Fold:
Amino acid sequence: MSAGRENGDAGRPEIHRGNGRTFVALAVAAAIPVLLLSGWVATLMAQQERGLTRSAAVASAARVAERVASDIATQIAVLRAEAASASLDRPDLAAFYAEAERLRREHPLWETVELAGPDGVQVVNLLRSLDDELGPTADRASFDAVVRTGRPVVGGIGPLGPISGKRLVALRVPVVRDGTLRHVLSVGLATSAVSAILRDAGAPEGWVGTIVDAAGNTIARTRAEAEELGHPAGAALLAAIRREPQGFYTGSTLEGPDVEVVYRTLKDTGGWSVHFGMPVATLNAPVSRSYLLLAGGSVLSIGLGLALVGLVGRDMAQRRAGEQARFALALRSSEEQGAVAAEAAELGTLRWDTAEETVTASRRAAELLGWEAEVPEGREMTADADIAFRAVDAGDRERMAAEMRRSLAEGKPLDVEFRVFQAGSVSRWVRLTGRAPRLRQGDPSGLVYGVVSDIEPRKRAEAERLDLLRRLGEAQENEQRRIARELHDQVGQTVTGLSLGLKGLERLLDAQETSTEAGRQIQWLQRLAGEIGRDIHRAAIDLRPTALDDLGLREALATLLREWGQRHGVRSDLEFVGDASRLPAAVESAVYRIVQEALTNVLKHARAATVSVCVDRRPDEVQVIIEDDGVGFEPGSGTSPSEARTPTEPRLGLSGIRERLTLLNGTLALEASPGVGTTLFVRIPVTPAA
Structure:
C-alpha cells in the first residue's frame, strides 16, 4: 500500500504537466483564429468604411444634382411664364420693363433680365434704362441655340458681360408670336448662388466639389473658386463625362493630392455635371492598415500553428478526454446564453399544445399574458388553454384564434398582436411570434412554439403620433380657413375698391377728354385688378371652400370639379349615391382634400380627357371612387408607358392621401394599367350615430 501511494504521488506531477500542455495547446489554438479573424474583420470594416465613404459621396452628388436641377427648372418655368406676357404681344417695352423688374426683385439669384431680337441685339436690359444703347448679348452660343431650336436653353458660364461686368450663367427662352420667333428672353444667374448650393451639400472635410457646364468650364467650386471660375476642367473630368453620365474617376486637384471623384450629370440643364473629389490617401488609408494587420496576424498565426502541432502530437490522448468535457460545457453554456438573452430582451417563451389544450410558459411570458399565478424564477408554468384565452381582450380573441389555426393548418409563421388584461390595470398590448413544426409526412404536430414580447410602448407611441397628426390636421384646416377669410374679406375688398377707383378715374379722364393713351393704361390696370381679384378668390377657395362649411360636401365637390374642369379643359362628372345627409366635418374635409389631391395628380401626370368622381354613402362607411382615362402606369414600376422621363406614379400625392386616411381608419386601393387610366378606391368608416 505504501508503494502504491508512492506511485500515485509520482504520477500526479506528470498529470499536472499534461494538463498544463493541454492548456497551452488550447490557448494557442484559440489564438490562431482570433488573430486571423481580427485581421479579416479589420479588413472588412475598412472596406465597409471605404464603401460608406463612397456612398456618402454619391449621396452628396445626387443631392446637389437634384437641388441645382430643381432650381434651374424653377427659373426656366418662371421665365417661360414671363415670355407669354401680354406686354410682349405689341410689344410694350415699358410695361415689360416694369414686369421684369418686379420678377428680379422676387428672385435674388437673378442678376439681370434681358430681351434681345433674333439678331442678338439687346432691346431691354434691367442694368440699363430703356433709352440706353445696349449692344449685342453675351454668350452667343446659347443664344444661337434658342434661335435654332426654338426651345429653352441652359447656357454655361458666359464671358465677361459688357454691361454687368460679371461672368453669368444664362437661362434663355424663346418669345414666339404667331409661330414666329420675335425675341429671346434671358436671365443671368450669379455663380455665387450655385457655389453656395455646392458648399451646403454636406460633404466631409477635405473633399473638393466642382460644378461644370456642358463645355467643361467650371461654374462653381468649393475651393479656389476665384482662380478656377470659367476655366476648362481637367482632362480626366472631360473624359469621364464623355464616357458615362455618372460614375467615378481618378484625377488630381490644384491642391496637390490625387482624388477619387464621384460625378453625376444634371437633368435638363444642357449638360451640367457635379463632381466631388475624395483624397485617395484618406480613402485608402484604413484598407492599407487592415492589410498590414492581416499580414502580421497571418505570420503570427503560422508560428502559433507550428507550436500547436508539437503540442497536439504529445497530448492527443488527453485532448480527447478534454473534448468530451468541453462539449458538455458548451451545451450548458449555450442553454444558459439563450436564457440570458431572452431575459435581457424581456421576452417570454411558451409552448402551446392544442391536442392537450395546455400552455407552458416561462415566468416572463406568464407576466406578459396576465396570468395571476406566481411563477418561480427560472421555472415554467403549465396552465389550461382557457386561462390563456380568458386573459386576451374579448375584441382580439377571435382574431388570435384564427391566426393560431392558420399557422397550425398551413405551417406558416405565427405573428399576431393582441391586448391582455392584467390585474389592477388596463389592457396591455403584446405580440406573439412563433412557428408550428410539421411532422415528416407534413401533418401538423399540434404544437406552437412562440415568443411573447411587450409592445405597449410602441402602440402608445403610435397612438400619440396619430393624435398629433389629427391635431396638426385640424390646426391646418383652421389656419387655412382663417387665411381664406382674410383674403376674401380684407384683400379682396381692397382689390374691389381699387377696381372701383380705377373705374371712377376712367370716367373722370373721359370727362376731361384726356389722351387715349392714358385711357388705355387705365383699362389695362382695370383688367389687371380684375385678374388679381379672381386669383385671390381662387386662392381663398383652394385654401378652404366656403361651400364645404355652408352647403356640405356635395356642393363643395360640384363647385370644385366645375371650376377645375373649366380652368384646365378637362371634362368632369360627379355622382352621389346613397344617403344624402351630412357627414362628420372631419370626414367631409378629408374627402374634399383627397379629391383635390387626386385632381392635382391627374393634372400633373395623367394627361386625361375625362375625370369621374363617385361618392357612395353607406350605413357604416363612405366610399369614394376617382377614375380618369389618362395614360395610366404600371403600379410599383415607376416607369411611364410613353416617356421614360415622365414621373407617372404620384407617390407624394398618394402618401398624403394615405396619411389623411390613417387618421380616420380609412383605406386606399389603387388600380392602374398603362394606356388605360387610373382608379382610386377610398373607404372611410362612419359610425351609424354620425
About this structure: The radius of gyration is 38 Å. The chain has 17 helices and 21 strands.
